[in-house]
């Protein structure tokens, strides 16, 4: 797969969109002193190239009552159970991320829960999935870094 060439204007557009995906193209065009049509064409080009994939909504889970975050390392009985276990994990809506990993765990996932009691219920649900031999849980005390912009700027500097 070849890299897509992005220029400085593309970088500036992405920089604005990463802060707020809902910002109108007219606002971007005013900030960058270009036409809204140019913004539209550039964004469409990046969407077609697969660089921009949809848009996301950032929720304040704490305000919604889901402030408890834990990471669960999953040990499988056998590696050939991976796909079925992932399918079973996907059926639990409070599992927000799952990765097949190397190293200590076969699968590593993130859960969001209301509190420790709810987290315990989720962990027990995960433990009961056929193909899982055991789990190891780490509780998040605080999210300290969650900065997509720093990564984006590092990638731009390499291009």
Rounded to the nearest angstrom, the radius of gyration is 20 Å
Mean pLDDT: 92
Strand content range? 15-25%
Cα-to-Cα separation, first versus last residue: 15 Å
The percent of residues in helical segments reads 40-55%
CATH topology of the largest domain: Alpha-Beta Plaits
| Number of beta-strand segments | 4
Q: Write out the strand line-up for the largest beta sheet, numbering strands in chain order.
A: 2-3-1-4
Q: Give the second-level CATH assignment, the architecture of the largest domain.
A: 2-Layer Sandwich
Description:
A four-stranded antiparallel β-sheet has the order 2-3-1-4. The protein is of the alpha+beta class and about 160 residues long. The radius of gyration is 20 Å and the shape is elongated. The longest helix has 13 residues, at about 35-50. The protein has helices spanning about 10-20, 25-30, 35-50, 80-90, 115-125, 150-159, and strands at about 70-75, 95-100, 105-115, 130-140. The protein has two domains: about 10-55, Arc Repressor Mutant, subunit A (Orthogonal Bundle); about 70-140, Lrp/AsnC effector binding domain/regulation of amino acid metabolism (RAM) domain (Alpha-Beta Plaits), CATH 3.30.70.920. The model has no long low-confidence stretch (mean pLDDT about 90). Helix 1 (about 10-20) packs antiparallel against helix 6 (about 150-159).
């Amino acid at each position: 797969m070849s890299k897509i060439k992005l220029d400085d204007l593309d970088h500036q557009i992405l920089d604005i969109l990463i802060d707020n995906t809902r910002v109108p193209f007219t606002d971007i065009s005013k900030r960058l002193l270009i036409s809204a049509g140019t913004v539209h064409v550039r964004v469409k080009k990046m969407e077609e190239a697969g660089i921009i994939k949809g848009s996301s909504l950032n929720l304040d889970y704490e305000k919604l009552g889901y402030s408890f975050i834990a990471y669960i390392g999953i040990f499988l009985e056998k590696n050939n159970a991976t796909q079925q276990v992932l399918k079973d994990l996907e059926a639990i809506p409070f599992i927000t991320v799952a990765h097949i990993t190397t190293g200590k765990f076969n699968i590593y996932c993130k859960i969001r829960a209301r509190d420790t009691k709810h987290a315990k219920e989720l962990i027990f649900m995960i433990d009961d999935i056929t193909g899982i031999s055991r789990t190891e849980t780490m509780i998040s005390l605080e999210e300290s870094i969650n900065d997509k912009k720093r990564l984006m700027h590092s990638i731009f500097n390499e291009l």
